[in-house]
Amino acid sequence: MPNLLFKNLAPRWIIFCCDLALIVSSFVCSFFLARYFLLDKPLISDFFPQILTHIGISIACILVFAIYSGIIRYSETKDIVRIIKFGFLQFGLWLPIILLFPSHLLTKNVSVGLLLINLFVVIFTLVVFRLLVKEVYFRALARPKMGERAIIYGASAMGLIVKKVLEQDTEKKNIVLGFIDDDYSKVRKNLEGLPIFKASGQGISKMLKEKDVTHLYISINKLSVEKKLAITDLCAALQIKINIVPDTSQWSGGQLQKEQLHELNIEELLEREEITLPSDVLRDTYHNATVLVTGAAGSIGSEICRQLTKFSFKKLILLDQSESGLFDLEYELRRKDKRHDLQTEIASARDYQRLKKIFSIYQPDIVFHAAAYKHVPLMEVFPSEAILTNIIGTKNIADLASHYGVKKFVLISTDKAVNPTNVMGATKRISELYIQSVSDQKQNETDFIITRFGNVLGSAGSVVATFKKQISEGGPVTITHPEITRYFMTIPEASKLVLEAGKIGKSGDILLFDMGKPVKILDLATRMIQLAGYKPYDDISIVQTQLRPGEKMFEELFKDTEEFVATDHPRILKAKKATDVNPEFMSSLLDLEEAALSHNNELIPFILRKMLPE
Predict the structure, then answer these.
(1) Which of 108, 303, 347, 350 is the most buried (most CB within 10 A)?
(2) Where is average pLDDT lowest: 138-142, 151-155, 344-348?
(3) pTM over 0.70
């Protein structure tokens, strides 16, 4: 309540009156200084008309630069600049008046020396007034709670911005204890009165512990993964939370806000550098093209749409059966750039007639098919749903793409399609085989391409999302087996692979990233607990359950029968079509569709095993 009263206590007219009083006081003080304080009473009485002239000039100058309009407790450099401009305008208006009318009642006793003294006195007085109000507010009236004891990684301009943001947090009394930096030339020096420490070596851990640091802020945007991992290991032992400064492009109105400083997440700690693809080489592919994205409201589909907005496409069709997800995505994309032609279509990949109407209206040039069910345990329980969406939905989209002469069709598949041990993986493998069979048709002018992903970090329902929820609830974090491993990639990486596939892929290709070494799920869980500021097993326990139905210990990227081929991009791999195609594949597909339509979940596994002998 005191804060609220203070915020409403000083409307602009009060600030205006305070400024005017200070301006008049400064002018009187300057008059005394110009006379060396040797004044008699008649001279003081004669000075009142000049004060009235000064008030008139000052009011005009105040209105020109609106020095009263700023919120004093948030005064910044730009407010000081306004005051300086005010002072010089005031001096500039007085000067010709005293030169033209030196003996006038309203101007006599005002000299150039007096005006010069007043110029510096009034600027000094107004600036000090604002600084005092600001100090009083933050120290006495704001009454912030004890906040963070922070250290900032990066003794640079960005580090100073972070320091300012932390210290201006009115909710908490944050204390910035200093900076750490890898540049040895900065070590043991001061930056704005705060010490700069060496970012590595034996002394850093001791320093952080002695100063009781609770938060570390990384202000360097391009810090390597190795450095981030080293910082994480260092801070984990001391239970120090790590926060990241977002890229300047994500700042609100070009200003960094406290709420934009986010905790270091597991996506930023991949045990390899993030794969990047140059966007300029893709411009020609998507220039003036009509692009259809199915499953557009999903994690991958929505990111594909975001990446596409960097290009000058003709039209982007967002297709999904989730009306809420589509609404949110369309709102987000239109808010960023209203120039793009976006069309939303609520439809299911299982509805052939609805899809046919959409294809006939828009005549897309490129189709990215991301719509699918992907949760392994759920699809074990509802195999008919997985088949109708993942297989029949893919068949519908592919057949229509071929019929309407789409130039490129890109299917988003998964590494679980390789030697599948579960229904979800089997449906994706059959989808791959169908796409390759369509690409073999000689009369087909469409390039049918497959992209195969590992696990996507941060996608809905991913292991990362599960672990985050379990950690926020205080644990335990559950893993199915201590030795289980998975390949991981980020959502932006996965989406860029899809876009790159639309350029370099040839019909029948299977493209995937070289995702480096697989990651142990146990290590992932341990790292995430540490990032949240807890000690694994002490603060939050890690509990082993058992492998879920259809779950693999290790994922594979290629089948043994797939031919490995390099591509023009050093980090993109390609598998040519396998030769072991089941001759009864198409007839079995009809049987599978019939069993799924009748929801015969007992028959479905037998047909799947017949179609996929592996």
Answers:
(1) 303
(2) 138-142
(3) no
Contacts of 366 (CB under 8 A, 6+ apart): 285, 286, 289, 290, 291, 292, 406, 407, 408, 409, 410, 502
The pLDDT confidence band at residue 8, using thresholds 50, 70 and 90, is: very low
DSSP conformational letter for 171 = S
Name the DSSP letter for residue 274: P
What is the enclosing helix (H) or strand (E) of 190? Answer: strand 190-191
Gyration radius from the chain CA atoms: 34
461's CB contacts (< 8 A; 6+ apart) are 374, 375
Which tokens hold the place of 111? 């000299």
Taken in order 588, 594, 596, 599, is the CA torsion positive or negative?
negative
**Active-site annotation holds for 416:** yes
DSSP-assigned letters across all residues of 212-257:
T--EEEE--TT--HHHHHHHHHHHHHHT-EEEEPPPGGGSBTTB--
Contact 192, 160 (CB under 8 A): yes
Distance of CA 515 to the CA centre of its chain: 22
The count of other CB atoms within 10 Å of the CB of residue 521 is: 20
- Strands laid side by side in the 290-294 sheet: 342-346, 315-320, 290-294, 366-369, 408-414, 447-453, 510-513, 572-576, 563-566
Closest of 204, 196, 194 to residue 174, by C-alpha: 194
Closest CA to 194 of 214, 211, 170: 211
Q: Which of 500, 499, 537, 497 is nearest to 513 (CA)?
A: 497
- Per-residue pLDDT of 91-119, as tens digits, reads 888 888 877 777 776 667 777 787 888 88
Burial of 4 (0-12, 13-18, 19+ CB in 10 A): exposed
Q: Which of 186, 228, 416, 428 is catalytic?
A: 416
CB atoms within 10 A of CB 496: 24
What does the alpha-carbon distance between residue 499 and residue 282 come to, in Å, rounded to a whole number? 8
**Phi and psi for 455 in degrees, rounded to 5?**
-75, 135
Instruction: Name the 3-class secondary structure at 321.
Output: coil
CB proximity list for 384: less than 8 A, separation 6 or greater: 595, 596, 597, 599, 600, 601, 604
Distance CA 562, CA 570 (A): 19
**Alpha carbons 354 and 393: distance in angstroms, whole number:** 12
